[in-house]
Amino acid sequence: MGLKPFLQPIPLLNDNYAWLAGTVQPDGQAELVLFDPGEGAPVDSVMRQHPKWHLVGLFITHRHGDHMGGALQVADQAHVPLYGPEDALGLLEVKGAKAQGQAPLCHVLEDGQKLSLAGMTVEAISTPGHLNQHLCYLVRWPAAMKAAPALISGDTLFSGGCGRVFEGTPARLFHSIKRLKALPDDVLLCPAHEYTAANLAFVQRQMASHPGLTANLDSRAVVKRVDQVKALRAVGQPSVPVALGVEKATNPFLSAPDEATFTQLRHVKDIS
Ligand SMILES: [Zn+2]
Protein backbone atom coordinates (compact mmCIF):
# COMPACT_ATOMS: atom_id res chain seq x y z
CA MET A 1 0.00 0.00 0.00
CA GLY A 2 1.64 3.23 -1.12
CA LEU A 3 -0.88 5.50 0.54
CA LYS A 4 0.58 7.69 3.31
CA PRO A 5 -1.00 9.81 6.05
CA PHE A 6 -1.02 13.57 5.60
CA LEU A 7 -1.32 16.22 8.35
CA GLN A 8 -0.36 19.88 8.00
CA PRO A 9 -1.40 23.26 9.44
CA ILE A 10 -2.22 26.28 7.28
CA PRO A 11 -1.42 29.50 9.19
CA LEU A 12 -4.06 32.21 8.82
CA LEU A 13 -5.28 35.45 10.42
CA ASN A 14 -3.02 36.51 13.34
CA ASP A 15 -2.23 33.22 15.03
CA ASN A 16 -4.82 30.68 13.80
CA TYR A 17 -4.20 27.33 12.17
CA ALA A 18 -6.55 25.52 9.82
CA TRP A 19 -5.54 21.83 9.62
CA LEU A 20 -5.35 19.71 6.48
CA ALA A 21 -5.57 15.94 7.05
CA GLY A 22 -5.97 13.00 4.71
CA THR A 23 -3.94 10.59 2.62
CA VAL A 24 -1.41 11.07 -0.17
CA GLN A 25 -0.44 8.65 -2.97
CA PRO A 26 3.18 8.10 -4.12
CA ASP A 27 2.52 10.35 -7.17
CA GLY A 28 1.53 13.24 -4.88
CA GLN A 29 -2.25 12.99 -5.44
CA ALA A 30 -3.87 13.68 -2.09
CA GLU A 31 -7.42 13.47 -0.75
CA LEU A 32 -7.80 15.88 2.14
CA VAL A 33 -10.28 17.43 4.52
CA LEU A 34 -9.80 20.84 6.10
CA PHE A 35 -10.60 21.82 9.67
CA ASP A 36 -11.51 25.38 10.74
CA PRO A 37 -11.00 27.53 7.63
CA GLY A 38 -11.05 30.88 9.45
CA GLU A 39 -10.02 32.73 6.29
CA GLY A 40 -10.43 31.78 2.62
CA ALA A 41 -7.44 33.40 0.87
CA PRO A 42 -4.57 31.47 2.57
CA VAL A 43 -6.39 28.16 1.93
CA ASP A 44 -6.97 29.13 -1.70
CA SER A 45 -3.30 30.01 -2.12
CA VAL A 46 -2.10 26.67 -0.65
CA MET A 47 -4.52 24.67 -2.83
CA ARG A 48 -3.44 26.57 -5.97
CA GLN A 49 0.21 25.79 -5.20
CA HIS A 50 -0.66 22.08 -4.95
CA PRO A 51 -2.91 21.11 -7.87
CA LYS A 52 -2.69 17.42 -6.89
CA TRP A 53 -4.35 18.07 -3.55
CA HIS A 54 -8.12 17.57 -3.53
CA LEU A 55 -10.45 18.69 -0.77
CA VAL A 56 -13.37 16.36 0.01
CA GLY A 57 -14.85 18.02 3.11
CA LEU A 58 -14.70 20.91 5.55
CA PHE A 59 -15.05 20.53 9.31
CA ILE A 60 -15.87 23.30 11.80
CA THR A 61 -15.11 23.02 15.52
CA HIS A 62 -17.29 25.95 16.66
CA ARG A 63 -19.07 29.06 15.44
CA HIS A 64 -16.42 31.74 16.11
CA GLY A 65 -15.48 33.73 13.01
CA ASP A 66 -11.78 32.92 13.16
CA HIS A 67 -12.72 29.23 12.73
CA MET A 68 -15.27 29.45 9.93
CA GLY A 69 -14.83 32.87 8.29
CA GLY A 70 -13.50 31.26 5.09
CA ALA A 71 -15.80 28.21 5.12
CA LEU A 72 -18.34 29.40 2.55
CA GLN A 73 -15.66 30.56 0.10
CA VAL A 74 -13.69 27.30 0.36
CA ALA A 75 -16.80 25.08 0.25
CA ASP A 76 -18.08 26.93 -2.81
CA GLN A 77 -14.76 26.74 -4.69
CA ALA A 78 -14.04 23.10 -3.83
CA HIS A 79 -17.71 21.94 -4.04
CA VAL A 80 -17.45 20.06 -0.75
CA PRO A 81 -19.86 19.52 2.14
CA LEU A 82 -19.51 21.14 5.56
CA TYR A 83 -19.56 19.21 8.84
CA GLY A 84 -19.84 20.65 12.33
CA PRO A 85 -21.99 21.61 15.30
CA GLU A 86 -25.59 22.69 14.74
CA ASP A 87 -25.24 26.37 15.66
CA ALA A 88 -22.18 26.95 13.44
CA LEU A 89 -23.75 25.25 10.42
CA GLY A 90 -27.03 27.10 10.97
CA LEU A 91 -25.17 30.42 10.69
CA LEU A 92 -23.34 29.26 7.56
CA GLU A 93 -26.57 28.07 5.90
CA VAL A 94 -28.18 31.49 6.42
CA LYS A 95 -25.06 33.37 5.26
CA GLY A 96 -24.60 31.10 2.25
CA ALA A 97 -28.22 31.45 1.16
CA LYS A 98 -27.90 35.24 1.39
CA ALA A 99 -24.51 35.60 -0.33
CA GLN A 100 -24.67 32.83 -2.93
CA GLY A 101 -28.42 32.32 -3.30
CA GLN A 102 -27.98 28.74 -2.17
CA ALA A 103 -27.25 27.19 1.22
CA PRO A 104 -24.10 25.03 1.34
CA LEU A 105 -24.42 21.27 1.88
CA CYS A 106 -24.27 20.91 5.67
CA HIS A 107 -24.15 17.84 7.92
CA VAL A 108 -24.62 18.41 11.64
CA LEU A 109 -22.45 16.03 13.68
CA GLU A 110 -23.24 14.67 17.15
CA ASP A 111 -20.93 13.32 19.84
CA GLY A 112 -19.41 9.99 18.84
CA GLN A 113 -20.41 10.17 15.17
CA LYS A 114 -17.76 8.72 12.84
CA LEU A 115 -17.21 9.45 9.17
CA SER A 116 -14.95 7.65 6.70
CA LEU A 117 -13.42 9.99 4.14
CA ALA A 118 -10.05 10.91 2.58
CA GLY A 119 -8.74 7.44 3.50
CA MET A 120 -9.25 7.92 7.25
CA THR A 121 -11.96 8.10 9.88
CA VAL A 122 -13.00 11.30 11.63
CA GLU A 123 -14.83 10.99 14.96
CA ALA A 124 -16.67 13.93 16.53
CA ILE A 125 -16.13 14.45 20.27
CA SER A 126 -18.46 16.95 21.95
CA THR A 127 -16.41 19.26 24.22
CA PRO A 128 -18.63 22.08 25.54
CA GLY A 129 -17.03 24.76 27.73
CA HIS A 130 -15.43 27.37 25.43
CA LEU A 131 -18.91 27.53 23.85
CA ASN A 132 -21.93 25.32 24.53
CA GLN A 133 -21.46 23.72 21.13
CA HIS A 134 -17.88 22.74 20.37
CA LEU A 135 -16.67 19.62 18.57
CA CYS A 136 -13.15 18.22 18.63
CA TYR A 137 -12.26 15.69 15.94
CA LEU A 138 -10.22 12.52 16.37
CA VAL A 139 -8.62 11.52 13.06
CA ARG A 140 -7.48 7.92 12.64
CA TRP A 141 -5.62 6.42 9.69
CA PRO A 142 -5.76 2.70 8.81
CA ALA A 143 -3.60 0.55 11.13
CA ALA A 144 -1.34 -0.48 8.24
CA MET A 145 -0.13 3.14 7.98
CA LYS A 146 1.21 2.99 11.55
CA ALA A 147 0.37 6.68 12.05
CA ALA A 148 -0.45 8.27 15.40
CA PRO A 149 -4.04 9.60 15.45
CA ALA A 150 -4.54 13.37 15.36
CA LEU A 151 -6.81 15.37 17.67
CA ILE A 152 -8.17 18.55 16.11
CA SER A 153 -8.91 20.44 19.32
CA GLY A 154 -10.19 23.84 18.10
CA ASP A 155 -10.38 26.27 21.04
CA THR A 156 -10.92 23.55 23.69
CA LEU A 157 -7.31 22.55 24.29
CA PHE A 158 -4.12 24.38 23.27
CA SER A 159 -0.53 23.38 23.75
CA GLY A 160 0.25 24.52 27.31
CA GLY A 161 -3.26 25.93 27.85
CA CYS A 162 -6.97 25.70 27.14
CA GLY A 163 -9.77 27.86 25.72
CA ARG A 164 -11.51 30.66 27.60
CA VAL A 165 -14.97 29.95 28.98
CA PHE A 166 -17.44 32.09 27.03
CA GLU A 167 -20.55 29.96 27.66
CA GLY A 168 -21.24 27.63 30.57
CA THR A 169 -18.85 27.05 33.43
CA PRO A 170 -15.18 26.18 33.91
CA ALA A 171 -16.38 22.86 35.40
CA ARG A 172 -18.01 22.00 32.08
CA LEU A 173 -14.77 22.72 30.21
CA PHE A 174 -12.86 20.66 32.80
CA HIS A 175 -15.06 17.63 32.09
CA SER A 176 -14.63 18.08 28.33
CA ILE A 177 -10.86 18.26 28.69
CA LYS A 178 -10.95 15.18 30.96
CA ARG A 179 -12.36 13.22 28.02
CA LEU A 180 -9.44 14.33 25.85
CA LYS A 181 -7.00 13.38 28.62
CA ALA A 182 -8.27 9.79 28.39
CA LEU A 183 -6.90 9.52 24.83
CA PRO A 184 -3.56 7.72 24.33
CA ASP A 185 -0.24 9.57 24.78
CA ASP A 186 0.79 9.21 21.14
CA VAL A 187 -2.23 11.17 19.85
CA LEU A 188 -1.05 14.35 18.12
CA LEU A 189 -2.66 17.50 19.49
CA CYS A 190 -3.57 19.93 16.68
CA PRO A 191 -4.99 23.12 18.25
CA ALA A 192 -6.40 26.11 16.35
CA HIS A 193 -4.00 28.74 17.71
CA GLU A 194 -0.26 29.30 18.03
CA TYR A 195 -0.39 30.30 21.71
CA THR A 196 2.23 27.85 22.98
CA ALA A 197 5.10 30.19 23.94
CA ALA A 198 2.84 32.56 25.91
CA ASN A 199 1.04 29.61 27.52
CA LEU A 200 4.33 28.07 28.67
CA ALA A 201 5.52 31.42 30.07
CA PHE A 202 2.31 31.47 32.16
CA VAL A 203 2.93 27.84 33.23
CA GLN A 204 6.47 28.66 34.41
CA ARG A 205 5.20 31.70 36.37
CA GLN A 206 2.56 29.56 38.10
CA MET A 207 5.09 26.83 38.93
CA ALA A 208 6.98 29.52 40.86
CA SER A 209 4.02 31.39 42.41
CA HIS A 210 1.20 28.77 42.70
CA PRO A 211 2.92 25.38 42.98
CA GLY A 212 -0.35 23.87 44.24
CA LEU A 213 -2.02 24.57 40.89
CA THR A 214 0.75 22.92 38.90
CA ALA A 215 1.63 20.01 41.19
CA ASN A 216 1.08 17.34 38.55
CA LEU A 217 3.51 18.84 36.05
CA ASP A 218 6.94 17.44 35.23
CA SER A 219 9.30 20.44 35.59
CA ARG A 220 12.01 18.89 33.40
CA ALA A 221 9.46 18.17 30.66
CA VAL A 222 8.29 21.82 30.87
CA VAL A 223 11.86 23.14 30.43
CA LYS A 224 12.41 20.74 27.52
CA ARG A 225 9.18 21.82 25.85
CA VAL A 226 10.01 25.54 26.35
CA ASP A 227 13.38 25.01 24.61
CA GLN A 228 11.77 23.03 21.80
CA VAL A 229 9.12 25.69 21.18
CA LYS A 230 11.74 28.48 21.21
CA ALA A 231 13.81 26.63 18.60
CA LEU A 232 10.79 25.95 16.37
CA ARG A 233 9.43 29.51 16.55
CA ALA A 234 12.91 31.00 15.92
CA VAL A 235 12.86 29.42 12.45
CA GLY A 236 9.20 30.26 11.81
CA GLN A 237 7.92 26.71 12.38
CA PRO A 238 4.64 25.90 14.19
CA SER A 239 5.01 24.56 17.75
CA VAL A 240 2.32 21.98 16.99
CA PRO A 241 1.35 19.19 16.51
CA VAL A 242 2.62 17.88 19.84
CA ALA A 243 2.09 14.47 21.44
CA LEU A 244 -0.67 14.39 24.06
CA GLY A 245 1.81 12.60 26.36
CA VAL A 246 4.00 15.73 26.35
CA GLU A 247 0.94 17.88 27.09
CA LYS A 248 -0.07 15.66 30.03
CA ALA A 249 3.34 16.46 31.60
CA THR A 250 3.46 20.18 30.71
CA ASN A 251 -0.10 21.55 30.46
CA PRO A 252 -1.60 22.36 33.90
CA PHE A 253 -5.17 22.50 32.50
CA LEU A 254 -4.82 18.95 31.19
CA SER A 255 -3.13 17.69 34.37
CA ALA A 256 -5.49 19.46 36.84
CA PRO A 257 -6.71 16.74 39.24
CA ASP A 258 -10.14 18.22 39.99
CA GLU A 259 -12.73 20.86 39.07
CA ALA A 260 -11.62 23.24 41.84
CA THR A 261 -7.97 23.32 40.72
CA PHE A 262 -8.99 23.72 37.10
CA THR A 263 -11.43 26.53 37.90
CA GLN A 264 -8.85 28.42 39.95
CA LEU A 265 -6.22 28.00 37.27
CA ARG A 266 -8.61 29.28 34.59
CA HIS A 267 -9.41 32.28 36.83
CA VAL A 268 -5.70 33.09 37.40
CA LYS A 269 -5.10 32.89 33.64
CA ASP A 270 -8.12 35.10 32.84
CA ILE A 271 -6.85 37.92 35.07
CA SER A 272 -3.15 37.55 34.19
ZN1 LIG B 1 -13.35 30.29 19.78
From TrEMBL:
Keywords: Hydrolase, Metal-binding, Zinc. GO terms for biological process: methylglyoxal catabolic process to D-lactate via S-lactoyl-glutathione. Its EC number is 3.1.2.6. PANTHER family: HYDROXYACYLGLUTATHIONE HYDROLASE, HYDROXYACYLGLUTATHIONE HYDROLASE GLOB. It catalyses: an S-(2-hydroxyacyl)glutathione + H2O = a 2-hydroxy carboxylate + glutathione + H(+). Zn(2+) 2 binds at D66, H67, D155, H193. The gene is gloB. Thiolesterase that catalyzes the hydrolysis of S-D-lactoyl-glutathione to form glutathione and D-lactic acid. Pfam families: HAGH_C, Lactamase_B. Residues 15-193 form the Metallo-beta-lactamase domain. This is Hydroxyacylglutathione hydrolase. SMART domains: Lactamase_B. Belongs to the metallo-beta-lactamase superfamily. Glyoxalase II family.
